[in-house]
Every structure is written in C-alpha cells, then in structure tokens.
Amino acid sequence: MKVKSRYPEKMEYKARTEWDGKTGGIAFLKNGELVFDTPEVYGGRGQGLCPYRLFIAGILGCINNTFLDIQRMSNLEIITFNLEGKLLVQFDGAGYSVSQFEVSGKLVVPEDDLYLAERCIEQAKKYCPLTRSTKDCIPISYDIKVEAE
Which of 80, 83, 104, 134 has the fewest C-beta atoms lying within 10 Å of its C-beta? Predict the structure, then answer.
C-alpha cells in the first residue's frame, strides 16, 4: 500500500562546484557557498570541509530533520536532542570506500512522553531518506538513548 504524503512526490536538489586552483573548491548551493578541501593526510591543505565530514553531517542532518518532522506530527515535547556520527572509510587495496555509519545521540523528553519518543526515533531511523537510500551498501548502527526528565 502506498503511503500518502503531505509533501511533494518528487524533489530535486542541485549544487555546483568550482575548483579553487589548489586542493579543494567551493560548492555553490541554493542558500550559500561551502568551501571544501582535501585533508592533509591525502596531500591537501585541509583549508575547508572534508567531503567525508560533509557526508556524515548530511546523514545526521537528514536523521535530525526526519525526526523533527515526525516529532511535530506526534506532538512530542523535546527537552534536548543531539546526534553524533562516525563515518568509517577503508582502503581495500584498490581504493577507498565508506564501510559503515555509526550514529549515536541522546533525546530527552518529559516523563510522560518516553514511549512516544522511542517510537519517533524508530520512525526517524526507518524513514530518513539518506539512510534509506544507502542502507543496502553501507551498514549503519544506531545508539540513540531516549531519557525522561
């Protein structure tokens, strides 16, 4: 059964990059610019954000925003919410690839909302578009604690 969404069925996001003449570049996005560079360990200057860090930040941002959408629909009250991520990248003899995501965090809610909060976190993990899109090629582990205050 197809789930009906209140959001558009199809969305498109665009970006453009331009080489900085050295070891990185600038990404031009709809709402601004972002400087990226090659990490020093790979021969870069490390003068901008590393694409690996951008990737894990995008994953965390997507999980965060998916959770907040579900939280709003559920009328869940949040006291605090934070996520941390780790992206494991491995060399396999031929090249590098992302081998795993690790997501941890903490959600604090009022005592009466503990069960609802746990359900909202589970739904966010299930419906985050970026993790849904990468789940078959990159394993993801979660350790998001839900606590009552």
Answer: 80
Instruction: Compute the residue count for the chain.
Output: 149
Confidence at residue 4, expressed as pLDDT on a 0 to 100 scale: 74
DSSP 49: B
Q: How far is the C-alpha of 41 from the C-alpha of 68, rounded, in Å?
A: 36
List pLDDT tens digits, range 3-16.
677 889 999 999 99
Question: Cβ(117)–Cβ(76) under 8 Å?
Answer: yes
Selection from 104, 116, 110, 102 nearest residue 147 by Cα: 110
Distances in Å between the Cα of 127 and the Cα atoms of 8, 22, 70 are: 15, 39, 10
Give the torsion sign (CA, 148, 126, 101, 30): negative
What residues form DSSP beta bridges with 22? none
- The residue assigned the tokens 């396999």 is 92
Q: Is the pLDDT of residue 76 over 90?
A: yes
Place of tokens 């870069």: 44
